[in-house]
Specification:
Its EC number is 2.7.7.7. The protein has 13 helices and 14 strands. By secondary structure, it is an alpha+beta fold. The strands form four sheets. The chain has a five-stranded mixed sheet with strand order 5-6-1-7-8. Helix 4 packs antiparallel against helix 5 and helix 10 crosses helix 11. It is globular.
């Protein structure tokens, strides 16, 4: 519910395999074929994969060599971020025909509050259909949409019928919908948290809803309140058209622990590539870099450094990232997760101070 007691009408629009779909649209020879956007070199990383590639298990943030093993016919294309940005601007123009309350999360997804829509349509479902139809007609691409009464459920719903689908969850359906989902679908629940929940006997939203807020806070700290409300389909966050990102980063969890210095430096180089691509396409600038490492026993360490100048190029990010890695070498034991984040972001000369509603980008959030 909104603060006024009015039920919000929220749409979460998520483009389908955005980068890869743009490449297939612009090059007919790629249509219907497994396509990966990224570099095919030994140290390359998949930035996005077409649905044909995903059928072979190819995923965003996967090392290119692994992707090729899983799909030998995979076609790599170099990313064209200017093209993706141009399409993204067009899509946001389509959104703006219906509302000014738009909160972009990335180039390919956004929340829209259409409680009071510009055209007086009055129905969030009709607006979502109109937006998806306009995107298809004007860009030649498809989008999926989730329509609901809050952001948490709208985002879950947009992923429900992908690709090129829509899911509507009414207020009276929210708790039941959430109860039916595995907790891994909850935004922010990564592999480690899901593993911890499983050990506690929590596998679904229904299991989570059986726990009171005190129990959740005991096991998950300050995050317990979020889980308590999410399990009941409650999310009072407004769509924030003025949200400012506070950080941009990437992290990867490995099937086999990294132990040697060479392995860790190569893994970090892969992450630098992903982080820089995100920094570049979001035109972000920052002064603080944070390295995160999680050992095989799940202990997590971080190292950070703030510099007196903007970290505005790839080499600076890479150099500082490796300097931070030096601080934990040699590692005590195998490393199962490595991450790098640029924070203290600067926006038009000012340090960003508005709430970062969308949080940090991680590999889990690259592209749907």
């Amino acid at each position: 519910m909104a603060d006024t007691g009015e039920i919000r009408k929220i749409i979460h629009v998520d483009m389908d395999a955005f980068y890869a779909s743009v490449e297939q649209r612009d090059n007919p020879e790629l249509r219907g074929k497994p396509v990966a956007v990224g570099g095919s070199s030994k140290r390359g990383v998949v930035a996005a994969a077409s649905y044909e590639a995903r059928a072979f298990g190819v995923r965003s943030a996967m090392p290119s060599v692994t992707a090729l093993r899983q799909c030998p016919d995979l076609i790599f294309v170099k990313p064209r971020f200017e093209a993706y940005k141009a399409v993204s601007r067009h899509i946001r123009e389509i959104f703006a025909r219906h509302t000014d309350v738009i909160q972009p999360l990335s180039l390919d997804e956004a929340y829209l509050d259409v409680t009071h829509d510009k055209q007086g349509i009055g129905s969030a479902v009709k607006i979502a259909k109109a937006i998806r139809a306009a995107i298809r007609e004007e860009t030649g691409l498809t989008a999926s949409a989730g329509v609901s009464y809050n952001k948490f459920i709208a985002k879950l719903a947009s992923d429900q019928n992908k690709p090129d689908g829509m899911c509507v969850i009414l207020p009276e359906q929210g708790p039941e919908f959430v109860a039916s989902l595995p907790v891994r679908r909850f935004h922010g629940v990564g592999p480690r948290t899901a593993e911890k929940m499983a050990k506690l006997g929590v596998h679904t939203g229904a299991d989570l809803a059986q726990k009171d807020e005190i129990w959740l806070s005991q096991h998950f700290g300050s995050w317990g309140a979020y889980l308590f409300h999410a399990a009941r389909g409650i999310d009072n966050r407004p769509v924030n058209a003025n949200a400012v990102r506070k950080s941009i980063g990437a992290e990867s969890t490995y099937f086999e622990d990294k132990r040697s210095e060479d392995e860790l430096r190569e893994a970090l180089d892969d992450i630098v590539e992903i982080v820089w691509d995100r920094i570049d396409r979001n035109q972000a600038q920052g002064k603080t870099l944070v390295l995160k490492a999680r050992y095989s026993d799940f202990r997590t360490v971080t190292r950070s450094r703030t510099v007196g100048h903007i970290l505005s190029d790839r080499s600076a990010i890479a150099t500082l990232g490796h300097a931070l890695l030096d601080q934990i070498l040699p590692v005590e034991m195998g490393v199962r997760l490595l991450g790098l984040t640029l924070s203290g972001l600067v926006d038009q000369g000012e340090i960003a101070t508005a709430p970062a509603m969308q949080g940090q980008f991680t590999f889990d959030h690259v592209e749907k």
